[in-house]
Write a structure and sequence with these properties.
This protein is α/β, with parallel strands linked by helices. The protein contains 9 helices and 20 strands.
C-alpha cells in the first residue's frame, strides 16, 4: 500500500511539473541615441518591449531617425511624449543614426510644426499619448501630418495623473512633474501667430507635462521621471503606491535634477532595485566607457553601492526581470 501511494504521488508531481507555467520573461529596454555604443548629448529615447510583444517608444526627441529608423520594431504600439519641449517631442532629427559626433550630433531634418514624435506615430500607425491638454495639441499635428481626422482622434490618447490606460498587457500611468511645458513658436502652425509669439518672446502652453509609470506583464514596474525637480510623489506614489522597482532618472541639471539631486531622490525617496540615468545633456561616455568628471560619473558615484546603475548606451538592449534586476545586456 505504501508503494502504491508513493507511485501515485510521484505521478501527480510529474503531471504538475509538466503543466507548470513557464517562467516569466524579461522586459527589453533599448536606448535609441544619436550614436550606438555611447551615451551622447541629446539622448532621450527609450524603446520598451513587453514579453507579450507590446512596444512603447518614450520621448523620440531628435535621436530617432523618423518612422523608418531601422532600430524601430516592425510593429510600434505606442509613442509616449513627456513634454512639448523640442528635445523631447523632437523639433528636428537625424537623417540617419550616427550623423555628426556624439558631442555634437547633426540634425538635418526639420520636424516642426508636427514634431518627430507625431511623424513617427503617423508613419507607423502607433497610438500617441501625452498628459492632459496635450491631446488636442498632438491631434492637430497628426492631422497636419496627413492622418485622417477620425483616425487621428482614435490614435491620440490623453492620460492625467491618477488614471491609467492599458496597451496590450502594459499598464501606463502618469506622474506629476515640476517643470514647464511651453512649445516654441516653430511648433505653432499659424505662421502669423508664430511670428507674433517669437517677437514677444512667448511659448504656447500645452498643459502640464508628466512622467510615467509602466507596469509590465512580468511584474516589472518602471518609473520614468522625465524633466522634473524633486517631488514628494517620488516617495508616496512612485515607491509606496506603484512600488516601482526600476527608475529612469533625468540627470541633466539646470532644467531638471542634477546628478547629485537625482541620486539622492533615487536612494532616499524611490529606492528601486536598479536605476537608469538619462538626459545628461552632454557626452557621457567615450567608446562605451564613462567619462571621468561627467554628470554620469557624478551620478554613479553619488548612488554608490545603493543599487546597480545602468547607463543609457545607445543600441544596447538591456533585459530586466520582474524584480527590476538586469539579467542581460548590462
Amino acid at each position: 500500500m505504501r508503494l502504491l501511494f508513493s507511485a501515485a504521488t510521484a505521478a501527480l508531481l510529474l503531471v504538475g511539473l509538466g503543466t507548470a507555467p513557464a517562467a516569466a520573461q524579461n522586459v527589453k529596454i533599448t536606448p535609441l541615441g544619436t550614436h550606438d555604443g555611447d551615451m551622447c548629448r541629446h539622448d532621450r529615447a527609450l524603446l520598451f518591449q513587453d514579453p507579450d510583444g507590446t512596444t512603447i517608444l518614450f520621448d523620440a526627441g531628435r535621436t530617432v531617425a523618423g518612422a523608418k529608423d531601422p532600430r524601430l520594431p516592425k510593429k510600434l504600439n505606442l509613442v509616449l511624449v513627456s513634454s512639448v519641449h523640442g528635445d523631447h517631442q523632437g523639433d528636428k532629427r537625424q537623417a540617419k543614426p550616427g550623423d555628426g559626433k556624439c558631442k555634437k550630433p547633426q540634425y538635418k531634418v526639420k520636424t516642426t510644426p508636427n514634431s518627430n514624435s507625431v511623424e513617427i506615430a503617423a508613419g507607423t500607425g502607433a497610438k500617441i499619448l501625452g498628459a492632459g491638454q496635450m491631446r488636442l495639441y498632438l491631434r492637430a499635428r497628426m492631422v497636419n501630418a496627413g492622418v485622417d481626422k477620425k483616425k487621428a482622434k482614435k490614435m491620440v490618447k490623453r492620460l492625467r495623473p491618477g488614471g491609467k490606460m492599458k496597451f496590450g498587457k502594459v499598464i501606463v500611468s502618469a506622474i506629476p512633474t515640476i517643470h514647464s511645458n511651453g512649445a516654441n513658436p516653430p511648433f505653432v502652425m499659424d505662421k502669423t501667430l508664430a511670428k507674433a509669439m517669437k517677437k514677444s518672446g512667448l511659448t504656447a502652453y500645452a498643459g502640464p507635462d508628466s512622467g510615467f509609470i509602466l507596469k509590465f506583464s512580468n511584474g516589472l514596474v518602471v518609473y520614468i521621471s522625465a524633466d522634473t525637480g524633486h517631488t514628494s510623489d517620488m516617495e508616496t506614489l512612485v515607491r509606496r503606491y506603484y512600488k516601482a522597482n526600476l527608475a529612469v532618472m533625468n540627470i541633466g541639471d539646470v532644467n531638471t535634477m542634477g546628478p547629485e539631486e537625482a541620486a539622492w531622490a533615487t536612494k532616499e525617496l524611490i529606492k528601486p532595485a536598479a536605476v537608469i540615468p538619462s538626459h545628461a545633456n552632454e557626452q557621457s561616455t567615450k567608446g562605451g566607457k564613462v567619462i571621468a568628471g561627467s554628470k554620469l560619473d557624478k551620478f554613479i558615484k553619488a548612488v554608490g553601492s545603493a543599487m546597480p546603475v545602468h547607463p543609457t548606451i545607445s543600441g544596447r538592449t538591456m533585459e530586466f526581470n520582474g524584480s527590476g534586476k538586469c539579467v542581460k545586456g548590462c
